[in-house]
Amino acid sequence: MVFVPWRYVNLWRCNGCGLCCREFEVVLTFKEWLNITKIYGVGVTKAGLNKLYIGKRADGSCVFLYPGPNGRWLCGLQHIKPLACKLWPFKILSKPKYGHASEALFEYLDQKFYVYIDPFCTGIRWGEPSAELIHKVIPEFIEIALGLRQNQLYSTMIIRPVFFPIKLKDNF
Ligand code: SF4
Ligand code: SF4
Questions:
Q1: Residues with CB under 6 A from ligand 2
Q2: Which of 34, 72, 89, 90 lies 20 to 30 Å from 132 when distance is taken between CA atoms?
Q3: pLDDT tens digit string along 108-119?
Q4: Which pLDDT score is estimated for 158?
Q5: Which pTM was predicted?
Q6: Residue 106 CB contacts under 8 Å (≥ 6 apart), including other chains
């Protein structure tokens, strides 16, 4: 598995393609498993040898994935979304585990982090890092990784209002 340092990324936005919710197993902490089980029952989860996971349908998709508007896919577990889902496709690390230390280094809250992204995600725009990536997206992922925030604004799919052009007058 190759993870790419954030300095190669112009911007990341989830487009709701749903691929990650089909391709990967979501490992749950015991507390996450308990919270999900208390609401939905044990049948929506599964147990491995040493790990607990979210359940999958026969087609490989997460049992909480459901179709949204315009061909997008939505998460039905927003209110108690597991940390692994909240952080994907970023890796927020305290050491440069995947190499390229200088390009992965990100300083925030007077701390050093090493930030990588999984290139499997279709929401990546490659290029020079944008202000939104540096000041909004990555800081939010770091705050979530540190447990400083729960709510997601830039680290999940942003539903943007649809603007229709206003036709003032035919001859305007
Ligand atoms: S995180 Fe990436 S792969 Fe997952 S739904 Fe969003 S764009 Fe698709
Ligand atoms: S819990 Fe939500 S984000 Fe996580 S895999 Fe399932 S549908 Fe995707």
A1: 21, 26, 54, 62, 64-65, 75, 77, 81, 85
A2: 72
A3: 999 999 999 999
A4: 74
A5: 0.90
A6: 6, 112, 113, 114, 115, 138, 142
What are the boundaries of each domain within the chain?
4-145
Is-contact 44 54, C-beta < 8 A? yes
Closest ligand, as measured to the CA of 74? 2
Which of 57, 61, 64 to mutate to test ligand 2, by most ligand atoms within 8 A of the CB atom? 64
- What's the gap in Å between 61 CA and the centre of ligand 2? 9
CB 107 within 8 A of CB 114: no
Atom nearest to 26 CA in ligand 2? 5
Integer Cα distance of 92 and 76 in angstroms: 25
pLDDT tens digit sequence for 21-73? 999 999 999 999 999 999 999 999 999 989 999 999 999 999 999 999 999 99
User: Which residue's CA is the nearest one to ligand 2's atom 8?
Assistant: 21
